[in-house]
Each structure stands twice: as C-alpha cells, then as structure tokens.
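#lab-general

N.A. 3:47 PM
ok so I finally got the sequence cleaned up, no stray characters, all 173 residues accounted for. can someone with queue access submit it? mine expired

B.Y. 3:52 PM
send it over

N.A. 3:53 PM
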Amino acid sequence: MSTEQTILKQAREEFVTQWGAIGTQWGINRTMAQIHALLMTASDPVSTDEVMAALEISRGNAHTNLKELVAWGLVRVVAKKGDRKDFFEAEKDVWQIFTIIARERKKREIDPALAILNKCAEETKGIRTPEGQAFYQQMKQLEEFVSFASSISNRVASMKHGYAVQLAAKILG
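B.Y. 4:20 PM
back already:
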C-alpha cells in the first residue's frame, strides 16, 4: 500500500469514527452514522458484507441500520449486474443530506414536541389559578417558538443551495 493510500485509509477511518460520535448528538445511533460515513466516502457502492467487515459489526446490526438509512433517504439500494447481493450508496450532495436530516429530525423530534405542547396548552387553557395560567402561557410561548423555528427550518430546507447560502451571507454579513 502506498503512502497516499495509507494516509487516505487512516483519514477515512478517522472520519467514520468521528461521524459516528457526531451522529449521536443529532439523534441517530453511532453505528448508523458510521455506516452513513462509510458509504458517503466510498467511491463505489458497498455490500452489507463490506460494511460488516469495515466496521466489525454483525449482519443484523448492519442490516437494521442500512434499512433505516434507506428509509431516511440518505442511502439507496443499488443492483450490480450479475450479482445477487444488494449494494448501497449514500447521497453525496451535502445540501441534500442536510435537507433529508432536517426533514427526518422534524418528523421524529419537532412534530412530537409540538403535539405535546399543544395538548398541554389545550388541557390547561381554562384553568384560572395563577399557577394554571402561568403554565398555560409557558406552553403557548414554547409552542409558538418551536413552531416558528420549525417553519424557518422548513423554509431553509426547501430553498435551493445557492439561494440559501446567499441569504445566510446577508443575514450574517
């Protein structure tokens, strides 16, 4: 193996490891994030066996996480002519990755939070005690803020990459 190949292999392994750690902070499990990183940096589609070998994980773990990545839309199944195995490739467009993750996090985190806030506000709307009114107001404020943040996220995710970058430059500049 050449020096360049060794450096590339080490850098890729470091990225896969760190992407796994970062992924846990985004609400996905470490293995799912590591598989995503492995596929994102692969030059060719990768089989389940290759994922298992690279990450030293079980077939069940690889299969479950690949299935979830496909469900999210971050990974697609690819068929290779003459081979009966499934191969997987990741979405590589960074803006697409961002919009997919934003959509999935909204579905899994923001929407349920909004539902809880709305339910708590509705259930306490008629309470006239100072404590009840304070609770109701807090729920409404949280609901309005989370709803606003969700709307902004939806708006940004629906923009074309170039326009979103221009808008961000205006806001931050």
